[in-house]
């Protein structure tokens, strides 16, 4: 089944909320989709597909290439040749997505995956990375303070999983102080490098921000029961994040794991093997529990359950009735929401009259709800769009059961037209016929 599309879901989130107050679907080792190694491949969707599906936290591991040219490449442990350039394929894809969806933000964790990290070459990594990010610095949020969503709409938020080390060279003149040999960042992003737990779940604090990370990826089981990754590690962290007393902490809860300790021999469980057990358990958890703040959830192969990402997105909305367009996924019924009521669109023909033909209902959150009669109001019968000849104003026109005259309501501004997707066929009529309609107040969208 094709993944539901959620390109603009953050548009409907309160911009005053800090990022740690949200439930944010993410992917672990987000750039491994080109890999041919089952032990290294963690994603089946491309980065573009991940973002379109609603993923907003991406986990990027980088290494050096063969040439000392400042280019960094996506890597994952033993598979260091995935063919994805950090600047072109990762930043470029993110910038394109954000330019098309400026209401969104992308949280990007960056880690030095090169073997040279252990040989003391962190300064070169930091220098090369800084040069790349500085070329796109207007797209990045690099402060060390936790932002609100409004502060970072249209931006990439750096979650730093690398040390800040700088190569210094002597001054050009005697007594000149040393200076950095490579470009450095003005700020270094949110620091999750220091105290990040190694194959563990633990709290820590950096720059006055409290974090809790669950990343038990090897020692998740004493035997070979793959469900223990979820029941023993993921689920307790979900419950902890949802607790009222934990709301000032940024939770990062990895559902991913590998099989190094999941059986007798190494790699007896690949990331896909684990995901085939963990993803359904996680999906069932979300279906069985009320929506809540669960934090950042990096996952392997979330598409194994097509509505898993959708369920996580829905955790950010307290009241689905605020949306202008809704679909009841259980029965396919479609509604417009105005006057504080849901107005049922009773037939595909009416939808075709009102909306552009290529409208994707999944481009806004798609809630599964059962309206009661008090919410549904009256059906929107014979709905269509009208304009009066020679005038630019656009109107929605519909009939009410038992009324002899159709209702006419001005669509107040372009934001209302966009929110409702009212781009169907516009029927021009004579100004002289205005008396045939029952004029009611305009409809508007905030």
TrEMBL record:
InterPro entries for this protein: PI-PLC_domain, PLC-like_Pdiesterase_TIM-brl, PLipase_C_PInositol-sp_X_dom
Protein name: 1-phosphatidylinositol phosphodiesterase
Domain spans labelled Phosphatidylinositol-specific phospholipase C X: 13-161
Gene3D superfamilies per the UniProt record, alphabetical: Phosphatidylinositol (PI) phosphodiesterase
Protein species of origin: Niabella pedocola
A Pfam family assignment: PI-PLC-X
EC number(s) reported in the record: 4.6.1.13
SUPFAM superfamilies documented for this protein: PLC-like phosphodiesterases
């Amino acid at each position: 089944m094709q993944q539901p599309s959620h390109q603009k879901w953050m548009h409907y989130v309160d911009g005053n909320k800090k990022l740690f107050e949200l439930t944010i679907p993410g992917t672990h080792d987000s750039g491994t989709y080109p890999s041919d190694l089952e032990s290294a491949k963690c994603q089946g969707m491309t980065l573009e597909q991940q973002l379109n599906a609603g993923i907003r936290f991406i986990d990027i591991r980088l290494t050096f290439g063969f040439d000392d040219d400042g280019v960094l490449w996506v890597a994952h442990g033993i598979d260091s040749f995935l063919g994805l350039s950090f600047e072109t394929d990762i930043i470029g894809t993110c910038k394109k997505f954000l330019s098309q969806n400026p209401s969104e933000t992308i949280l990007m964790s960056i880690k030095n995956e090169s073997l040279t990290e252990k040989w003391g070459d962190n300064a070169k990594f930091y220098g090369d990375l800084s040069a790349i990010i500085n070329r796109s610095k207007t797209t990045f949020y690099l402060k060390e303070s936790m932002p609100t969503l409004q502060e970072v709409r249209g931006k990439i938020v750096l979650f730093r999983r690398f040390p800040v080390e700088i190569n210094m060279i002597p001054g050009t003149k005697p007594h000149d102080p040393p200076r950095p040999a490579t470009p450095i960042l003005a700020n270094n992003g949110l620091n999750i490098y220091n105290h990040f737990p190694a194959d563990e779940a633990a709290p820590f604090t950096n720059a006055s921000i409290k974090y809790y990370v669950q990343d038990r990826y090897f020692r998740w089981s004493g035997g070979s029961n793959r469900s223990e990754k979820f029941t023993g590690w993921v689920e307790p962290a979900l419950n902890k994040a949802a607790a009222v007393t934990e709301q000032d902490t940024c939770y990062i809860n990895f559902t991913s794991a590998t099989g190094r300790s999941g059986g007798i021999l190494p790699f007896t469980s690949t990331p896909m093997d684990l995901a085939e057990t963990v993803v359904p358990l996680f999906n069932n958890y979300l279906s069985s529990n009320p929506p809540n703040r669960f934090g950042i959830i990096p996952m392997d192969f979330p598409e194994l359950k097509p509505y898993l990402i959708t369920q996580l997105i829905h955790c950010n909305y307290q009241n689905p009735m605020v949306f202008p367009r809704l679909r009841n996924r259980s029965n396919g019924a479609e509604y417009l929401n105005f006057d504080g009521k849901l107005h049922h669109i009773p037939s595909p023909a009416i939808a075709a009259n009102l909306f552009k033909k290529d409208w994707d209902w999944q481009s806004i959150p798609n809630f599964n709800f059962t309206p009661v009669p008090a919410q549904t109001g009256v059906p929107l019968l014979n709905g269509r769009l009208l304009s009066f000849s020679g005038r630019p104003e656009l109107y929605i026109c519909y009939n009410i059961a038992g009324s002899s005259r159709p209702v006419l309501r001005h669509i107040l501004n372009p934001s209302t037209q966009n929110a409702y997707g009212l781009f169907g066929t516009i029927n021009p009529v004579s100004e002289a016929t205005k008396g045939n309609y029952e004029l009611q107040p305009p409809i508007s969208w905030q």
